[in-house]
Design brief:
This protein has about 140 residues and is mostly beta strands. It has no helices and 13 strands. The strands form 4 sheets. Strands 10-6-5-4-13 form a 5-stranded antiparallel β-sheet, with no helix packed on it. A hairpin with a 2-residue loop joins β4 and β5. It is globular. The two termini are about 30 Å apart. It binds FE2/S2 (inorganic) cluster (FES). The site of FE2/S2 (inorganic) cluster (FES) has 13 residues, from loops.
């Protein structure tokens, strides 16, 4: 469950469907991402999961400057310092823990995808605008 606000009061909403993404050990602190397909607002897109410190995070792989994928090599999103997610095209940088733009031509936040980690497995959660790709 997650807390959302309605009419100035907190209410709990289900997190949607829970989908296994990868093993926890597949995500190394500031290492390569694990990509996955999603349908975001009706469009097929890629998401990616990374680990930053002890925590795993996932975002839609779509820059806020120009809506294009950001990895400079497949599954590589961290800059040389390991402190920022960087877009390869024009160098926008984002905070790995929140997805907020921290510099460059972007504005706002990356689209965050809810993750949970349990018993050595990372799962992502669907939302009203974020669904699994059906085959
Ligand atoms: S497309 Fe990402 S910084 Fe321009």
């Amino acid at each position: 469950m997650r807390e959302v606000w309605r009419d100035g009061k907190p209410v709990e909403q289900p997190l949607g469907k829970v989908i296994a993404l990868c093993n926890s050990s597949d995500l190394v602190d500031r290492g390569e991402a694990v990509p996955f397909d999603v349908v975001y607002c009706g469009q097929t897109c890629r998401g990616f999961a990374v680990r930053y410190g002890a925590q795993a995070y996932a975002y839609l792989n779509r820059c806020l400057h120009v809506p294009m994928e950001m990895d400079y090599q497949p599954n590589r999103f961290f800059d040389m310092t390991g402190n920022w997610i960087i877009c390869a095209t024009h160098g926008a940088i984002y905070r790995p823990d929140t997805g907020e733009c921290a510099g460059g031509p972007c504005r706002g936040k990356l689209v965050k995808i809810a993750l949970t980690e349990r018993d050595g497995v990372v799962h992502w959660h669907t939302a009203h605008n974020l669904l699994p790709l059906e085959f």
